């Protein structure tokens, strides 16, 4: 159980990264729903999500031009613990996960072998 005075982050999103025309576009699928009392916060959460996606792409994908559509398929918001920064970080994590699935894990460093005594 968390105390309401303790800052925590909750941002649960499902996004698809799809090939697209040159550039970057963000779409919200028609099937995405959220409880009515959170609707007024969605534009800010969407903007923060896009900001995080753009930031991470700018850092991780530097050798090819972007031709990408990001489609938001699902979103969950917590009454107390969801905020713009939560969704910005979710965007960054989504890019990391997509790149991991695309490229596989980064190479692991080789372990040093113990020298024979």
UniProtKB/TrEMBL annotation:
Source superkingdom: Bacteria
Key words, A-Z: GTP-binding, Nucleotide-binding
Lineage: Bacteria, Bacillati, Actinomycetota, Actinomycetes, Streptosporangiales
Gene3D superfamilies in the record: 3.30.230.10
Organism: Actinoallomurus vinaceus
Translation elongation factor EFG/EF2 domain mapped to chain residues: 3-100
Record-linked InterPro entries: Ribosomal_Su5_D2-typ_SF (IPR020568), Ribsml_uS5_D2-typ_fold_subgr (IPR014721), Transl_elong_EFG/EF2_IV (IPR005517)
Protein name, per record: Translation elongation factor EFG/EF2 domain-containing protein
Any Pfam family the entry gives: EFG_IV
């Amino acid at each position: 159980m968390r105390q309401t005075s303790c800052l925590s982050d909750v941002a649960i999103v499902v996004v698809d990264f799809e090939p697209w025309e040159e550039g970057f576009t963000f779409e919200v699928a028609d099937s995405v729903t959220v409880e009515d009392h959170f609707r007024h916060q969605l534009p800010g959460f969407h903007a923060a999500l896009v900001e995080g996606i753009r930031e991470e792409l700018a850092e991780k994908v530097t050798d090819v031009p972007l031709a990408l559509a990001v489609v938001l398929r699902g979103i969950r918001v917590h009454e107390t613990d969801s905020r713009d920064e939560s969704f910005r970080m979710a965007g960054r994590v989504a890019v990391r996960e997509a790149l991991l699935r695309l490229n596989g894990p980064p190479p692991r460093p080789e372990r040093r072998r113990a020298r024979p005594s």
